[in-house]
Design a protein that fits this description.
The chain is mainly beta. It has one helix and eight strands. The longest helix has 13 residues.
């Protein structure tokens, strides 16, 4: 007689977690350096926020600080570009990556951090609106953290907090 095998069922995916943060300050930095066969640069905007709401509720994180880091990176080749009139003729910068790239959410006892690489146009537009204070709220969605880290699934910037349906 054959033993019936029990099928292990894959657990259902957990619903996304949501963090709503209110922006307090914005810090901008810029880095440029030699990189392989060329030069690369990175512009970084760090938005320091207070966590004002979380779903599902995580009371130990409410009121803690979280930093949203937005990054834009470009690479310039060292190959001479005949279209360049001046020296050095290193060519045009290429934005890397050309599409958004979400990193992860880190939540700990001292606060948190989440970050994303953005296309150049989106990065500079958001930086301007964040520095001016026009965008005041950031909603981040992420997969349930394990050991303090979870995959970031979306970031939404707004002038007012989103209303829940």
């Amino acid at each position: 007689m054959e033993k019936e095998r029990e099928r292990k069922r894959k657990p259902l995916p957990e619903p996304e977690h949501t963090l709503l943060a209110a922006a307090k300050s914005v810090k901008v930095s810029y880095y440029v350096g030699n990189h392989g066969d060329g030069v690369s640069d990175e512009a970084i905007t760090d938005v320091l926020c207070d966590i004002v709401a979380m779903t599902p509720s995580m009371p130990k994180h409410l009121g803690k600080e979280v930093t949203c880091s937005l990054i834009c990176s470009r690479q310039y080749g060292r190959v001479d570009d005949p279209d360049e009139k001046g020296w050095p003729r290193i060519g045009k910068g290429q934005t890397v990556p050309e599409r958004p790239f979400l990193l992860n959410m880190r939540l700990g006892k001292d606060g948190g951090l989440f970050s994303a690489y953005l296309p150049e146009a989106a990065y500079w537009a958001l930086q301007t609106d964040l520095k001016s204070g026009r965008l005041k709220f950031i909603e981040a969605k992420f997969i349930k953290p394990r050991h303090g880290y979870g995959d970031l699934t979306s970031i939404y910037f707004s002038e007012t907090p989103l209303e829940k349906p």
